[in-house]
Amino acid sequence: MSISRIAVRYATPLLELAEERKVTDAVKEDMASFSTLCESSHDFLLMLKSPIIQNLQKSEILKKIFDGKVNELTATFLDIVTKKNRAKFLPEIAKAFISLYNKKMGYQEAQVTTAVALDAELKAAFEKLVTEITGKKPLLTEKVNPELVGGYTLQLGDQQIDESVRGQLRDLQLKFQKETI
């Protein structure tokens, strides 16, 4: 079974239980914080994925880190998943939870990559574009890549819109290669 399917299998009931207990926003924030910790701390990620560290030790480490800082449901969930030998999947479960939450709340995650940082006017224009394309409220993240030279790329889930100078040059190159063959 793929990691993403496992992650969704764990994230879905967590979301349902959070809704039932009316703590969805708190659990979402906990999962976002957990995801950020996984991205920022390579050592933490290695600890979760280590087959050498016992599940009870991992559970104790997570309790020490998160005790009193996360919702009770989140703490219980982390403990259960860890004791069931699934701690290595926690980073993916957190991302799956956030994705399911955003989908349920009508948000569309989007990433715009440009050669320079966006000002407020351009950011608003991209948010409007995402809303027009998807019909959902945008959650826009920005990325700067000077190699684009100009233009932008917009990632909406598995769809990508490439309006960058680099992308247009690549398209021209492919067109000329086809014509010479």
Automatic annotation (TrEMBL):
GO terms for cellular component: plasma membrane; proton-transporting ATP synthase complex
Q: Does the keyword Ion transport apply?
A: yes
Output the InterPro entries linked to this UniProt entry. ATP_synth_OSCP/delta_N_sf, ATPase_OSCP/dsu
Topology in membrane: Peripheral membrane protein
* Molecular functions (GO terms): proton-transporting ATP synthase activity, rotational mechanism
Print the keywords alphabetically. ATP synthesis, Cell membrane, CF(1), Hydrogen ion transport, Ion transport, Membrane, Transport
Membrane in keyword set: yes
**Compartments reported by the entry:** Cell membrane; Membrane
This chain's function reads: This protein is part of the stalk that links CF(0) to CF(1). It either transmits conformational changes from CF(0) to CF(1) or is implicated in proton conduction. F(1)F(0) ATP synthase produces ATP from ADP in the presence of a proton or sodium gradient. F-type ATPases consist of two structural domains, F(1) containing the extramembraneous catalytic core and F(0) containing the membrane proton channel, linked together by a central stalk and a peripheral stalk. During catalysis, ATP synthesis in the catalytic domain of F(1) is coupled via a rotary mechanism of the central stalk subunits to proton translocation.
Q: What is stated as this protein's family in its record?
A: Belongs to the ATPase delta chain family.
Question: What name does this protein carry?
Answer: ATP synthase subunit delta
Taxonomic source organism: Marinoscillum furvescens DSM 4134
Name the gene behind this protein: atpH
